[in-house]
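User: Just a sanity check before I run the rest of the batch. Below are the structure tokens for the first item. I only need the designed sequence back.
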């Protein structure tokens, strides 16, 4: 083309070419959008981590209740009635059976459920010592000491008494032996609850204490008890 007509046609082609949209690839466009949306200015009012967690929790509870109410006969009202029935049954059982009780026995109790005499504990201690089972020998000899003091009425028989309690109580009428009694109680606790291993000397010390206590004369006056405390 030439002349005015050609010039007009060229101008139209150039103008039409300027109106053609740019075709941007999908992946770069998405990356550009993600980069733009990641800017802090777009997240100033977003809930924090705790709020998002609570929202999810309440959403889960809502979905659970919705599912339960849909499964319960009568819908939400039926679910409420069912919950009230369960609470009533629990209350009736509680009233009928009373508050649950369990037998509580101190984990540190000196004696087990089967009582034995001082002589029986001594015999058991000697048998363990002969087999070089020093932990068991120490335990049985300490039990023999406490049982002997109970048999002599120097200690009141009391279930659940610990070795430390027995040593403290026996130290009042037997103040001359209070230190050794506490040492024996600590040895008993160490091998019974502390995971330690006794040796022959530990057993011989407790055995000697047991023999000395057999011949010890208690001080039963109030003044002597006060001095021992």
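Assistant: Here's the designed sequence for the first item:
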């Amino acid at each position: 083309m030439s002349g005015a007509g050609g010039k007009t046609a060229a101008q139209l082609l150039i103008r039409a070419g300027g109106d053609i949209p740019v075709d941007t690839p999908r992946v770069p466009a998405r990356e550009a959008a993600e980069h733009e949306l990641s800017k802090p200015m777009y997240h100033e009012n977003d809930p924090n981590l705790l709020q998002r967690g609570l929202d999810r929790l309440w959403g889960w509870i809502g979905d659970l209740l919705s599912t339960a109410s849909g499964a319960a006969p009568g819908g939400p009202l039926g679910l409420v009635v069912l919950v009230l029935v369960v609470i009533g049954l629990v209350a009736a059982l509680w009233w009928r059976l009373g508050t649950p009780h369990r037998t509580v026995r101190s984990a540190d109790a000196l004696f087990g459920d089967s009582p034995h005499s001082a002589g029986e504990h001594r015999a058991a201690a000697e048998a363990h010592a002969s087999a070089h089972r020093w932990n068991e020998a120490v335990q049985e000899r300490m039990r023999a000491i406490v049982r002997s003091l109970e048999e002599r009425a120097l200690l009141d028989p009391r279930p659940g008494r610990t070795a430390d309690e027995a040593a403290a109580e026996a130290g009042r009428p037997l103040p001359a032996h209070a230190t050794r009694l506490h040492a024996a109680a600590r040895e008993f606790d160490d091998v019974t609850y502390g995971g330690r291993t006794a040796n022959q000397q530990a057993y011989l010390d407790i055995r000697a204490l047991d023999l000395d206590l057999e011949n010890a004369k208690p001080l039963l006056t109030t003044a002597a008890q006060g001095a021992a405390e």
